[in-house]
Amino acid sequence: MGLNGRKTDSFDSSLDSDHTLIWVALPMLALVVITAVLYFARDIMIPLTAAGILSLVLSPIVDKLERIVGRVPSVAMVVIAGVGMIAIIGYFATVQLATVADEVAGYSYNIGDKVSALQKSTPDWILHIENAVSDVERRVQKPPPYVAKPKNVPEVAITSGSMYDNIWRVAPALAAFIQILLVIVLLFFLLYSRHDMRDRFVRLAARVRVTVASVAIETASHTVSRYLFMMTIINLAFGATIGIILWFLDVPNAGFWGVLAFLLRYIPYVGTLVGSTLPTLVAFAVSPGWAKPIEVFCSFIALDLCTSQLVEPFMIGHQIDMSPVALLISTIYWSWLWGIPGLLLAIPLTVCLKVAGEHIPALNFVSLVLGGERELESYHDFYRMLLERDADKATSLAVRYCDENGLEEIFEDIIAPVLKLAGEERAERNISDESAQFIFEFVRELVPGLGSRFSEPRGAFRPRVLGVCPAGEMHNLGMLMVLESFRYAGAVVKFVGEDRAVPEVVDMVHIFDPDIVCISCTLTERLPDAAELAMTLKRGFPHLLILAGGVAALSYPADLIRAGCTQVAGTRSQALRAIRQLTRTKIDRELVSQSEASATN
Q1: Cα distance between residue 419 and residue 382, in whole Å
Q2: Kind and range of the H or E element at 63?
Q3: Are 63 and 194 spatial neighbours (Cβ–Cβ below 8 Å)?
Q4: What is 464-600's CATH number?
Q5: What is the pLDDT of residues 142-181, one digit of tens each?
Q6: Is the Cβ–Cβ distance between 521 and 462 less than 8 Å?
Q7: Span 378-451: which CATH code?
Q8: Model's pTM, two decimal places?
């Protein structure tokens, strides 16, 4: 028997280990599969993603125009205006870039003089290193082998190639043109059918059993649209300001550098640095001194700092709080996956994923990974310490929070959220049964200790409260917290214990003689036992006040009221108010009884 038991335990533990490995491997496998699909389908996904993000940016404008001119004209006007603006910017950038190249080539003497000055000011130890490296390279290199000069080499006529070769040369440009055309067409239809697409997405999510509310989709779309639109406005103002500053500094083609700064600022962290490099080099080439390149570079950095630290928090706020590390990793990932288009789409894609994770329950983990470094709620730290089995730190945090804020506050802000989170994580098998059991046992021992830190108030009348859970009820931590809140409010409390039968509870009522009995029922299958307990107590003690609570009790309050419960409370604050009200009623009844007895005598 013992051998079979050990074999069964070993088999169960191996199953748990295999299950854990599967849960670890599945996300990694899903990431590999998604990455492979995005890579091989990039010719389709890039235009679709670009059109989707542009539709989010332009949706607010279309919504305003649609009320005036209708759906089709408003969509056509916005798409034509957007495409025209992009075409003008592209043509302007191409022409200006060619102009800059010609102008810089004309300042070759100035560049040579500055490079010579830098070489003359180079320290001697760097020159020694350069000479040593050159000497090593010269010794390693071998002279090229002697090749006899061919004689009487016939001349070969070079043909222009076949039509297939000529088409193959222009294929990349043709593919880029087709992708741009595809983005324009997709953008038109996405803007035209944006509301219909939202409803279709909700129905599709329902079919795959993913809960997505239509309001959540609308809110997420509005949030992303506003964020991207405001970022566009901020970047446009940034580029215009850069152009004006460079114009004052007399840098050639200041307008072009402003447009380039506007475009490159969509790339996080390195965009401004890259955008400042070219105008700094141009200033280095055309100016006789060193002051102008330094002024240009510092202007970019100072303006970017002011924009990110002052303008963006004021205009955008912290509604989409992104982690800098996650944003940088996301930029590297999308640029590696899709190249330059991925680099430009990295921030909008990351923002869309972050907002989707906040509004779609199945993607909550994405929001957690991409979330910013904002201060977490205290219960997150408490929950992490319990998962780490660090009882000392968890106790210290709970005691400190209790002393600073109060008993009811720690129950409401720390312990109750942790119990709810642990229950959800256990139901989804994100934590082991051992970890969940450790959390529940730790809280069961912690709650009385927190309550004992407060002195019991003294009063003329202190109601006696007995806490009871029906037989088979597994969750009694809520009852323990309620009883400690009652003790803190001035009551004399006692908990019957776990899994007590109705006769045992009746005997405890005889011994403790409570004024109020609290029944906690969280499991629906234990509701008949709770009703039977309330009925038995009311039959044996007609004047006993019975207060019920718990998830199941709140779901079927009428059944418990018919069984004999005086009231059903939904929260601890409601239970405290009910206790005060019931106590006041009991005191009034006792006073009336005493008055009637005195009058009779």
Answers
A1: 11
A2: helix 42-69
A3: no
A4: 3.40.50.280
A5: 555 555 555 555 555 555 555 566 666 666 767 777 878 8
A6: no
A7: 1.10.1240.10
A8: 0.56
